[in-house]
């Protein structure tokens, strides 16, 4: 499973700057195509060869209320899945700031980590699903295994990958409780703009959203450039 998103791919098509307020309609259309193709390739690589078009919702204009609503829906789905499978559940999303979380950058990061995470748990995966909502792209896995072991492996991915700070991988036990880093004796996740705890920086809105977006975009570009010839 290679990463076929390249730097050119995403610079040429407008990257994160495409925005819904962009006057350049052609640029929007092209960027939107790229996003559609990106999410399709993640889906077909990681979930199923039968793609049924989740890109249709990418263009939707979201609000803060949508994000709250979608988060609640995701919680409900999570509870049902855990009840159905009686096994630990993993939920992965991109730590992307602001209201519009669906773009080449968040999808590019998702593509890299979907492959990694699915490869990590391989045949232990009982259920897998990729969704795109106002929360951004979200991977859900139900995994047959020890929940602490799963969380440790997830922390390993988050800590060892150069882009690991940009994803958020939650792990829930088969009784529905969330397993935190603290529970396993690990330090909380650090912010990617400063050295403080990420959750504090997000809650207190300590950093400028555009600066954060630029930071993620730069890091992804750098990563793709460095890894371009290795694929
Ligand atoms: Zn910070």
From TrEMBL:
<dbReference type="Pfam" id="PF03802">
    <property type="entry name" value="CitX"/>
</dbReference>
<dbReference type="GO" id="GO:0051191">
    <property type="term" value="P:prosthetic group biosynthetic process"/>
</dbReference>
<dbReference type="InterPro" id="IPR005551">
    <property type="entry name" value="CitX"/>
</dbReference>
<keyword id="KW-0808">Transferase</keyword>
<keyword id="KW-0548">Nucleotidyltransferase</keyword>
<dbReference type="GO" id="GO:0050519">
    <property type="term" value="F:holo-citrate lyase synthase activity"/>
</dbReference>
<protein>
    <recommendedName>
        <fullName>citrate lyase holo-[acyl-carrier protein] synthase</fullName>
        <ecNumber>2.7.7.61</ecNumber>
    </recommendedName>
</protein>
